[in-house]
Amino acid sequence: MTDQQTPATITLLAELEGHDDRAWHIAWNPQRPIIASCSADKTVRMYNYQTDTSSSDSDSSSPHLKFAHTTTIPTGHTKTVRGIAWSPSGKTLATASFDANIGIWSQDDDDGEGPSGEWECMSLLEGHETECKSVAYSNSGNLLASCSRDKTVWVWEVHPDSDFECMGVLMEHTQDVKCVAWHPKEEILASASYDDTIKLYLDDPSDDWFCATTLSGHESTVWTLAWEPRNGKYLASGSDDGTIRLWRITGGQMNEVKGECVASLEGHKGSVYSISWTPGKHDSTAMEEDGQERLGWLASAGGDGIVIVWEIIEQIPSGSEKPKLTTRRIAQLNAAHDVFDVNSLVWCPRSGLENVFATAGDDGHIKVWAVNYTSP
Amino acid sequence: TAASFSKNNSLWLDGEDDQDIEGGEENLDIAEDIDQEEIFELIRSISDPEHRSMTLEQLAVVSAPEISFDSVDDGIPSRRIKVEFTPTVPHCGMSTFIGLSIRVRLLRSLPTRFKVDIRVKPGSHQSEHALNKQLNDKERVAAALENPALVEVLEQCLAGATE
Questions:
Q1: Where in this protein does the record put region Disordered (chain A) (predicted)?
Q2: Is residue A235 a part of any domain in this protein?
């Protein structure tokens, strides 16, 4: 199924069944070998995984991962669980539901020997008026953002003992807000909307959170966002218009934030529902040339069932010119979930598994894949 | 029960038939078996939300020639069906609901490989762009189908279609 002309291939590592309805989203725990998924069946399913050393396959480039279902959280949400996010510590999971609430989940630690018990709802964040679509923790874990069809983005401060304080309600979009995503290093928040725009927000230390800039250019709903993972120099966005745009982000908390569209990736034949960006795996075959910075792999998926992996390289010109991006499609997989839409795609954040990603589909399945270069 | 509720609200058919279809060539054969008339047969008798005794066919909201097919060339036999409907008046406030009822009827009746685009006939509604966008936003459709009040009316309109 992989395009013969691409330099890399995508290999299926595992297929996880179990949801009774459409699977909407997945989240890899950043600290522990756990992957969680959520669904229209209102549950969150969790799997542990480990490297399978018993396999005798000579292809050492693909990790052999064995997954075991550990728990299904019924959640108590009265409607679809649309989005999930782990805190950076890996100890807390947030759920965003169409029932307008955000759930905050963590595990018992009664015996003092580390988290092992049942997942319990520690807090329910109420405030949104209609369906919550997405939830995200900031890099420090001190802030949580949520968004909804009610057109708002909320920023919550995370206090000890699962206590959350609303720091701001941002009413900048004119339509549903589909996705929120934090900058990997700074407290800059991005949101994507049915109103076809992306907005970036900052915290004014002497005042409230505010919208610093609006990125316009997409011709339809912006479904998904992903920051360039190492330094957040770029923001990628995927849209119902079938394209992925790359925006160079300049400025920051100290000065004016701006975004300029520097590339548009075409290849999907329908809505782009999910994108994810990984720093990628460093290996000897991927030597950096002078004046180049490898920005890793961006992967995309959507209603056409296609998964595409793009390599993103920044060319740093001499003199005062602006850097240029080189983008190349390195792998493609058609019908990733047979005839079904792919709703979510997320790279594994854990060391040694940088070339592994998971997808969630309308078939209710979660699939885990590895990307490998086929030739030097 | 919760199970039957969620099944009714599911956006795809849970038919065992689909699960059995694996072979690509077999899929293709079956795909070719479904034509414009059969799609029309599924939606013609949906009742109008405002005039419950009338069907969408009687009100000329739907007609067979407004149903078209596109092959999706993505390596597997998948078919894209486009249904255009014509609101009775250009400011018809029930157009979203009518579009949704057509979508749900087709989602429940057709094998999962079919992708359905629901649109208002060009020039037939003053909010054409907004309507089309809403009717083809899977997240909004999914959320609408978790609204019990809306689903109740929807079931009533679809009931006429199943008899």
A1: 51-72
A2: yes
Q: What is the dihedral of CA A166, A167, A173, A179, to 10 degrees?
A: -70
Q: Partners of A25 in the beta sheet?
A: A38
Residue for token pair 């998904």:
A224
Q: How large is the ipTM? A: 0.92
Residue A282 lies in a domain: yes
With a CB cutoff of 8 Å and minimum separation 6, the contacts of B154 are B97, B100, B101, B104, B145
- Cα gap A200→A52, rounded to integer Å: 42
**Sheet bearing B114-120, strands edge to edge:** B67-73, B77-85, B114-120
- For the four alpha carbons of A110, A115, A119 and A120, in that order, the dihedral sign comes to positive
Tens of pLDDT, residue by residue over A38-80, are: 999 999 999 999 987 665 554 556 778 999 999 999 999 999 9
- A320 exposed, middle or buried (CB, 10 Å; 0-12, 13-18, 19+)? exposed
Distant-in-sequence, close-in-space partners of B16: CB < 8 Å, separation ≥ 6 = none
Q: Please indicate whether, in this complex, the C-beta atoms of A176 and B112 are within 8 angstroms of each other.
A: no
A120 assigned to some structural domain: yes
Domains identified in chain B and CATH numbers = 2-162 (3.30.300.130)
CATH of residue A276:
2.130.10.10
pTM for this model (two decimals): 0.90
Question: What gap in Å lies between CA A94 and CA A164, rounded to an integer?
Answer: 12
Q: Are the C-beta atoms of residues B115 and B107 closer than 8 Å to each other?
A: no
Distances in Å between the Cα of A123 and the Cα atoms of A102, A105, A111, A160, B82 are 8, 7, 22, 12, 44
Measured in residues, chain A has a length of 376
The domain in which residue A329 lies consists of 8-373
For residues A194 and A176, the answer to whether their CB atoms sit within 8 Å is yes
Interface test with B, best of A1, A339, A340 (most B CBs within 10 A): A339
Collapsing DSSP to helix, strand or coil, A213 comes out as strand
Of A21, A306, A339, the CB nearest to B112: A339
Domain assignment of residue A1, yes or no: no
- Please give the full DSSP string across B56-74, using - where no structure is assigned: TTTTTS--GGGEEEEEEES
Residue A99 and residue A77 in contact, taking contact as beta carbons nearer than 8 Å? yes
Distance CA A357, CA A367 (A): 8
| B39 three-state secondary structure | helix
- The residues on B that touch A, with CB distances below 8 Å, are 6, 10-12, 72, 74-76, 78, 112-113, 115, 133, 137-140, 142-143, 146
Cβ neighbours of B113 in A, within 8 Å: 339
Which one, of A268, A269, A279, lies nearest residue A226 by Cα?
Answer: A279
DSSP E strand stretches across A79-221:
81-86, 92-97, 102-107, 119-125, 132-137, 143-148, 153-159, 163-170, 177-182, 189-193, 198-203, 209-215
Closest to B157 in 3D by CA, of B120, B103, B117, B116 = B103
How many CB atoms are closer than 10 A to CB B55? 19
In this predicted structure, what is the pLDDT of residue A280? Answer: 82
Q: What is the pLDDT of residues A13-32, one digit of tens each?
A: 999 999 999 999 999 999 99
